Amino acid sequence: MSSLPTKDIRVLALDPSTRGFGFAVLEGPNRLIDWGVKETKVNKNARSLKLIDDLIDRYQSSIVVVEDYKGKGSRRCRRIERLINDISKLASERKIKVRSISRVKIKQVFAESGAKNKYDIAIAIAKRFPELAPRLPRFRKPWMSEDYRMSIFDAVALAVAFFQPETASRDKAMREELNVQS
Amino acid sequence: MSHKLENYLRTYRKRSALSQDEVAFLLGCQNGTKVSRYERFARKPSLETLFAYEVVFGAPARELFAGAYQKVEKKILNRAQLLTRKISRATPTPMATRKLQILEAITSGSGTGPDKLL
What we know:
The complex is a heterodimer of chains A (about 180) and B (about 120). Chain A is of the alpha/beta class. Chain A is about 45% helix and about 20% strand. Chain A has a five-stranded mixed sheet with strand order 3-2-1-4-5, sandwiched between helices. Chain B is mainly α and about 120 residues long. Chain B folds into two domains: about 10-65, Orthogonal Bundle (434 Repressor (Amino-terminal Domain)), CATH 1.10.260.40; about 70-115, no CATH class. In chain B, helix 2 (about 20-25) crosses helix 3 (about 35-40) and helix 6 (about 65-90) runs antiparallel to helix 7. The chains are: A alpha/beta (about 180), B mainly alpha (about 120).
């Protein structure tokens, strides 16, 4: 990880959900800059896009990471699929690279730390970034809805997966290009 | 490397699990509005507030305001190079040599200031 030339690039990871979207901003694999959930109640996609635009403005990220909803292991509703597409378009308009990472890839990355499911991944993230520990939802029982805070952990998982060596090596060219630009 | 953000106040505040109102109270502000503006880079804090932030988060100002520091550093390095050229052109004297040593320390980034050369 640390041998990568662009270990300090700023990445904005976004995880759209039913309530809005979770986001995480990382500078390199081990420095979490900001995180949170933005809620939207009406006209969800348009409002989410506006909020994402503000985040891009504030953090001037080099790369936006989203879930690859076409990838294996992903189940997303049409609205969220459209929103992910719109996020990609927005980022392209702003000349920001977009990287899609599948759920399977995330599971592979966290399998090294023994995390098998979404909750285990969230625990692994809370261990890696202790500042997130207070936001870790309690274990979800089958009859419970998913806690809205889980989208923060999903967003961080996307960013962490992006920085992993095997994912990163494929993106090396992209990052080197960014390095030249900066 | 990407440019540093203007400041990392929001990061440090969230890491310490404090709300904007709580930080405002510690800084001696009425409410979290000012804190929000500092965090959104919409307002620059006073010198007193900057020191207060150092105390609250236990991090040096150059880390809290990394982007601002980077900008200032870049400007100073440019000016130091200009001054070096100007002094080099003048007649060499012991005073000029000393100045050049200090400017060299600034431009090389190896700990600046005359104290280091004493």
